[in-house]
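Repro case for the chain-ordering regression, as requested:
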Amino acid sequence: MSGFLPEYSTPATNRRVLLTSRPEGIPQASHFALDEAPLDPVGDGQFRVRNVYLSVDPAQRGWVNAIANYSDPVAIGSVMRALAVGVVVESRNADVPVGLHLYGWFGWQDYAVVGPEAIMTRIDTVAAPLSAYAGMLGMNGLTAWLAFTRIGRAEPGETVLVTTAAGAVGSTVGQLAREAGCRVVGLTGDDGKVARCTQRFGYDAAANYKAGDVADLIKGMAPDGIDVFFDNVGGPMMDTAIRQMRVNGRIVQCGTASIANWSPPPHGPRNEREVLMRRLQWGGFVIFDHTARYAQAMAALEALLASGKLVHDEDIATGFDAAPGAIARLYAGENEGKALIFVG
Amino acid sequence: MSGFLPEYSTPATNRRVLLTSRPEGIPQASHFALDEAPLDPVGDGQFRVRNVYLSVDPAQRGWVNAIANYSDPVAIGSVMRALAVGVVVESRNADVPVGLHLYGWFGWQDYAVVGPEAIMTRIDTVAAPLSAYAGMLGMNGLTAWLAFTRIGRAEPGETVLVTTAAGAVGSTVGQLAREAGCRVVGLTGDDGKVARCTQRFGYDAAANYKAGDVADLIKGMAPDGIDVFFDNVGGPMMDTAIRQMRVNGRIVQCGTASIANWSPPPHGPRNEREVLMRRLQWGGFVIFDHTARYAQAMAALEALLASGKLVHDEDIATGFDAAPGAIARLYAGENEGKALIFVG
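-- result from build under test --
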């Protein structure tokens, strides 16, 4: 076993975090309950994963909302859908041996009994601390690398603006943009994160969007305009940033975290003319469309990580009690780095 | 001379249509005045073009508005900026001989004294009626072909929705989409245009957006959703259509004709989440970015025209008196086909 691996406990029952009511907007602790259930049997072709790190992701908000999304809503009374990193402890699938580490759709629980369709990535060699496979080498890093590369398409010398600049995705985009030879500026939600952007993640400039007029803040950081806008929030920051885009700019719509409720959609200034006059290319990115490129992205990220050119922070809570409130905590901006829960 | 060419008169003075006041919104006849001036001298490197067909274009609204646009606003008291087709009648430029027909920035006047930078296309062989070079073989056709090809990127079997479906650009896009093997549906502003869309331009279905709920109209024509939305209008039709896009759809923003005033921008439902969830690619198209591809587009359009697969209508007024009210008439939807003014 690699020195990157913790010791795992082997509970006799399955602790689970269930969705107990349907949130409108951001899920709170009160929408979940903990329970404990007997272990499910492992069917033919299936395997049992002992979860080690549960992932907490902004996208979980969408998975529990009733409105149409890119996946069916989590059913009331069922285990909260989540990504996790774990290890195979029992297997009736020859391709997935006991001892293999996996990153996938294992839910907020101790044990998942699943088939291969639940695997997002196989961790054949554990080449970094296991937690990294749920963040920088998981959905967050893959999202940053693939969205920036495929939709952002930044050229050296261009200016890149990132929202949620200190977040798990944003901080990676900032570093990838810097490595691509861009000027990188970021918007984030408090002064501590501003400092982390410039001191830890290598942003050329960063600003607290709550501390001034956003149009002025962007203009101060990017006086000649923005070539690539990597947006995780939508809303007023989008309204302002799109009006400072340079001709032929690209907008990566990777999230809409600033808007708590889309039903009905809130109103804002129309952007058709900005798209037209600035010849923008505004594209939506959902990681699950890009499975064929995960291996390429992981290899690139592992190389950057190994070379020390890419840093990442993790905010790791311990135990299931942390889970119910974890999504709300994320939307309140209280985490510093990728939010994970250690349950191994 | 080709049989496609009319006879031209040779006035001794230059009749001109001047912009006399700055419109807010759509320019009306009252914003213009006719005058008559002596002929300008032809400088070294310049040439004199006798205009034959003046073009009337939706984009002229933007050229006279004071707010920032992709070109400087037309100055008060100067000749209205316009494209036109004409013939060189005097030249001090060896590359631009007398008798050559040109399409370019010659303004609403009898004669333009210009240099080569004013040429949009050279008409070395007049292979179609001269008026076509101001429409189907001019900015409208080039816009349709390049925007549809470069941003729309429709595949056979996809569904394409076109707004201003019977217009000079829209009707061409509709036919190009049909030739590309797509299902093509259109929105237009009266029942006569609906009939022209299906009977003359080969749309699979068309609807009068004033005659029903636009969401229902689109759903009726494209029950499985839209892959490519070629939009010339923005506004409420955009709001509705974007919510019926299929995953990985493309939006070509080619105009925003439904919005009379962008200062300040009107508000509408936010589209960030639609872009994200539907993985849209929303791109702005301005023809002047694509000069390097004009020849490719013209060759393709000429071939389609010669084969009879592409039809186009022209709405040709005669004489300068038609010019001042021509843009307002266009926005009122009163023209049937490409609006031109014959002044030859």
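Ordering looks correct now. Chain A has a mean pLDDT of 94.
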